[in-house]
Prior knowledge:
The complex is a heterodimer. Chain A is built from 13 helices and eight strands. Chain A is globular and about 55 Å long. In chain A, α7 packs across α9 (191-200). By secondary structure, chain A is α/β, with parallel strands linked by helices. Chain B is of the alpha/beta class. Helices cover 26% and strands 34% of the residues of chain B. Chain B has helices at residues 12-21, 49-58, 62-70, 80-85, 177-190; strands at residues 2-6, 25-29, 41-44, 75-78, 86-89, 100-105, 116-122, 126-132, 137-141, 146-151, 154-160, 163-166. Chain B is globular. The two termini of chain B are 12 Å apart. Chains A and B meet through α1, α2 and α12 of A and α1 and α2 of B.
Amino acid sequence: MTERYGFNKNLAQMLKGGVIMDVSTPEQAKIAEAAGACAVMALERIPADIRAAGGVSRMSDPAMIKGIQQTVSIPIMAKVRIGHFVEAQILQAIEIDYIDESEVLSPADDVYHIDKTQFDVPFVCGAQNLGEALRRIQEGASMIRTKGEPGTGDVVQAVRHMRAIQSEIRMLTSKSKDELYDAAKKLAVPYELVQYVAENGKLPVVNFSAGGVATPADAALMMQLGAQGVFVGSGIFKSGDPAKRAAAIVQAVTNFKDAKLIAAISEDLGEAMVGINEDEIQVLMAERGK
Amino acid sequence: MKIGVLALQGAFIEHIRMFESLGVQTVEIRKLADFTEDLDGIVFPGGESTVMGKLLHELELMEPVKQALQKGLPAFGTCAGLILMAKKFVDSKFLHFQVLDVVVRRHGFGRQLGSFSAEHEFVGIGTYPMVFIRGPYITEVGQGVEVLAKIDDKIVAVRQGNLLGAAFHPELTDDTRVHEYFLKMVEEALR
Lengths: 290, 191
């Protein structure tokens, strides 16, 4: 492990217990920062709009990302297409704080992910299960987020993926050494990563939840299921009162076990994003990049 | 001895583990009810200072904690925790406890590509491995503020009476000496 990779894992540690919000403009970035976002994801169109617009979605305009970098002091993340290492080189050149190699955008490579060990900037990647998470870590991701289903406002897939990862971790902790060799084979990951998870009962990097969180209750649900923080994409700026909803979600993530507090902050938040149920959607983004 | 660790956001678990390894009892402070009279010291961890500052207000912790700091409660802030305590900034409109008489440049060492670690002298401890993650530094200190560590002309650790501030993250290393330094301050205050 390089020293740089260590710092990149460390930055994810600093984000823990926080909410990372999707923003499309400097104005939205300001609202997010003032509402208590621990980082923002700069992208031209939030997932719900990408879903509605269809077509190929790509890395955002660097000028738009720079505009947000100049507006807020919290870390700035931005997305690249799965496998598109040149988009990643561009984001590194403008000194982004974190790159999200994301299934929300159209994949650029249907076989290979980016070799993230070749970069100095950190990467976060999505995962539906433990195998995907560990493969991304092997490729150099210094943070994982469960995929969920972006742009839907439907939390069911976020829950499914977080439960899958936590359950697979618990199973590994109870296995004997010879069983772990077999587990590594089945997960299609190196033995050393499986051994780490079995010994420590957790991933070797921070794990957030993403994709479908729309309410403070959703965020607290993901935290109680074991997330170390939450990404909220369309859920904030597709709602009736973004500033108020964002602040409430931030509070719910900090005091995720305090039902009285979450009840109080859930009052009068205005319209939540409309949302789409998973059986109504055409494109399952979570199926991109495994 | 019981140390409160502000657990609103950030790397608070890392501090708790450091104190656990030293056999010291800790308590997570997530809301006003957690901030009890019997705490012997308080820690402000790394994370995002704007997030913690906002939550301190919303959870009505800002004033009570500030008053306790002014009355002499020993406090230890790392990175964002240092920013929470600082009185002034070169470059920020966000103000928090305003108890530590220093001027801070937030993200003084740059964005994530500027994160680094280096071994430097810490007064009273010796050479210490300092990890900076989008770290700040101190440009000026007021009277009564002792400079404990510097990198070139950049001040990275200070003490002012009951307050200990570091721009780096001792909690990300296995080296407990800065935490032990703070525990000595707590013991002094108990005497």
